[in-house]
Write a structure and sequence with these properties.
Length: 478
C-alpha cells in the first residue's frame, strides 16, 4: 500500500465530507448562501442605533408583579375570596396548583407608593428602584407561554423553550461584533440570595451560542479563583512561553482549518487569543479597590463581597465602560411558593439598591443614554395563594405566565413611562400586550438591528432570535 494514500483510507465520514466541502463544492455553497467563504460573518447594523450595549439584570425564579409593580388596590375587597372561575380557566397553570381545589385571592403584601415626577406606583419594598422611576419604562403587560423555570428562561434568552438555539447575547455579538479586542463581547455572571432559600439552576445554554460559532457564546466570570477558568498560567509557565505555545497551536489549527474548513477551528484560534489578552485586562477589570468610596456606598454593603448581586452590578458597569457589548447578570431567589411573607422582602433588600445604583452610575458617566438596562424574569406569580394562608411560613404564589412586569432604562426606552395594563386581578393583559419575541425584537431594534434580517443558516433554514414572530414595541420607545 502506498503510505501517502493510507491516511485517506482512514478518513472518518465527518472528515470526508468536511474535506469535500472545499474547492468547487465550497464555491458553489458560498454562491448559494450569498457568503464569502465558509464562515458567516457578523452582519452589522441595519439602521441607526440608539443603544450600543445591553445589561440584563435577570431575576431568576420570577418576582411577583402583584406585590411589586402591578398596583391593584381594588384587590383588597376580594381578599381571600375565590378567584372567578372564568379567569381561572383562561390561563395555563403549573401542575403545582392546577388541581389545588381552592384559589383565594391575596392582595399585595405591602403597600404601594408613588415615586418620581410621574407618580409611578411601586411597592414600598423597592424604595431605591422608586428613586429611579423617572429613568425607566415600566412594562406591565409582558406575557409568556411558559409556566416552568427552565423553559421560561430559555424562551426569553433564546426565543425557544427548547435548548439549543443561540442566546440573545450571542445573537448581538454575532450581529455587531466586539468593541474591545481585549475583553469578551458577551459576559455572564451569576449570584443567588444569601441564604439560598429558593435558588434556581443556571444552565450554560442560557448564554450559549447554539449553532452559531462558539466564539459568540457568553464568557462566564466566576466569584472565586480566577474570574475566568484557566486564565492564569500553569506553574512554571511564563508569559513568553505561553505566547510561544499559542503561536504554535495557532499554526497547527490553521493547517487543520485549511484541510477541513471547520469554522469551529477558527473559533478555537480566536478564543485562545482572547484568553491570552484577558490575562492582562481581566485582573484590572475585577479590581474595584480604586473605586471611590461614594460609588461603593451607592451600590450597598454587599458590593465588596465577590459573587454577590451588588458586586456583579458594579462589574457590569466596569465591563460596559471598557467596551463589552452584552452583560448578563443572573440572580436567583425569587421562587416564593411558600415563603412569600418574608423572602420577598429579603430578596428586595439584596437587589433593590444595586439595581438602582447601576442605573444612576451609568447616567452620571454619560453611559445610560446608549446602554439598555433590562430588569426582567421568565414570568410572574399568581394573584391567588399557593399553600396555607394561615401559615406565615407556608404560603406564597405559583408561577404565572399570563401577565408580569419588567422595566427597562436607557438606550432609547421611554423614561418615566408605564406601558400596558392588566385586568383588575392582574391575570390577563387588557392593553398593549408585549410578548417575549416582541421584547427581543425591540432590544435588537434599539441596537440598530432588524430582527427579521439578523439570521444564521443552519440545517437548511435561516434561523433568527425571534423565530417567525415578534414586533417592535413602538410605545416603549422615546
Amino acid at each position: 500500500m502506498n503510505p501517502f494514500f493510507e491516511r485517506d483510507l482512514r478518513l472518518s465520514r465527518r472528515q470526508f465530507f468536511g474535506a469535500g466541502a472545499q474547492g468547487i463544492g465550497m464555491a458553489a455553497l458560498s454562491s448559494l448562501l450569498g457568503q464569502d467563504g465558509l464562515g458567516q460573518m457578523p452582519q452589522g447594523q441595519h439602521h441607526a442605533a440608539k443603544a450600543k450595549r445591553v445589561i440584563v439584570l435577570w431575576q431568576g425564579g420570577a418576582p411577583s408583579q402583584v406585590d411589586l409593580f402591578d398596583h391593584k388596590p381594588g384587590l383588597e375587597k376580594h381578599r381571600l375570596e375565590e378567584l372567578p372561575e372564568s379567569l381561572l380557566k383562561s390561563k395555563r397553570l403549573s401542575t403545582m396548583t392546577s388541581s389545588q381545589g381552592k384559589y383565594p385571592v391575596l392582595p399585595a403584601i405591602k403597600p404601594f407608593k408613588q415615586y418620581g415626577e410621574a407618580g409611578t406606583q411601586l411597592s414600598e419594598l423597592l424604595p431605591h428602584t422608586g428613586s429611579i422611576a423617572d429613568e425607566f419604562c415600566l412594562i406591565k403587560s409582558m406575557h409568556t407561554d411558559a409556566v416552568n423555570h427552565a423553559p421560561g428562561v430559555t424562551f426569553f434568552m433564546t426565543g425557544s423553550q427548547l435548548p439549543g438555539r443561540p442566546s440573545m447575547g450571542s445573537w448581538v455579538s454575532y450581529g455587531l461584533g466586539s468593541m474591545n479586542e481585549n475583553l469578551p463581547s458577551f459576559v455572564v455572571m451569576t449570584s443567588a440570595d444569601e441564604k439560598k432559600t429558593c435558588g434556581q439552576l443556571f444552565y450554560d445554554y442560557y448564554w450559549g451560542s447554539g449553532f452559531i460559532p462558539s466564539e459568540y457564546q457568553g464568557v462566564q466570570f466566576r466569584s472565586s479563583g480566577d474570574p475566568v477558568l484557566y486564565l492564569s498560567n500553569p506553574p512554571g509557565v511564563n508569559a513568553d512561553l505561553r505566547r510561544g505555545v499559542l503561536d504554535d497551536l495557532a499554526k497547527l489549527n490553521q493547517m487543520r482549518y485549511q484541510e477541513y474548513g471547520d469554522p469551529e477551528i477558527e473559533s478555537r484560534i480566536t478564543q485562545y487569543e482572547l484568553a491570552f489578552k484577558m490575562q492582562a485586562s481581566v485582573p484590572e477589570l475585577t479590581d474595584i479597590s480604586e473605586e471611590p468610596e461614594s460609588i461603593l456606598e451607592m451600590y450597598g454593603p454587599d458590593v465588596k463581597k465577590k459573587g454577590t448581586y451588588a458586586h456583579n452590578c458594579l462589574l457590569a458597569r466596569r465591563l460596559v465602560e471598557r467596551g463589552t457589548r452584552f452583560v448578563q447578570l443572573m440572580h436567583s431567589g425569587w421562587d416564593q411558593h411558600n415563603n412569600l411573607s418574608f423572602q420577598l422582602a429579603n430578596q428586595c433588600r439584596e437587589t433593590d439598591q444595586a439595581s438602582a445604583a447601576l442605573v444612576k452610575d451609568l447616567k452620571q458617566r454619560g453611559l445610560l443614554e446608549d446602554t439598555i438596562v433590562l430588569w426582567c424574569s421568565e414570568f410572574g406569580r399568581t394573584v391567588f395563594v399557593q399553600g396555607d394562608i394561615n401559615n406565615p411560613r407556608g404560603h406564597g404564589r405559583d408561577h404565572f405566565g399570563g401577565c408580569y412586569s419588567v422595566w427597562a432604562a436607557g438606550g432609547g426606552f421611554k423614561p418615566g413611562h408605564v406601558h400596558g395594563e392588566t385586568d383588575d386581578f392582574s391575570y390577563n393583559v387588557v392593553r398593549d400586550p408585549v410578548g417575549v419575541h416582541d421584547m427581543q425584537a425591540t432590544i435588537l431594534h434599539l441596537l440598530g438591528i432588524d430582527h427579521t434580517r439578523l439570521t444564521y443558516q443552519y440545517q437548511g433554514r435561516n434561523f433568527r432570535l425571534t423565530d417567525v414572530e415578534g414586533e417592535v414595541v413602538e410605545g416603549v420607545l422615546k
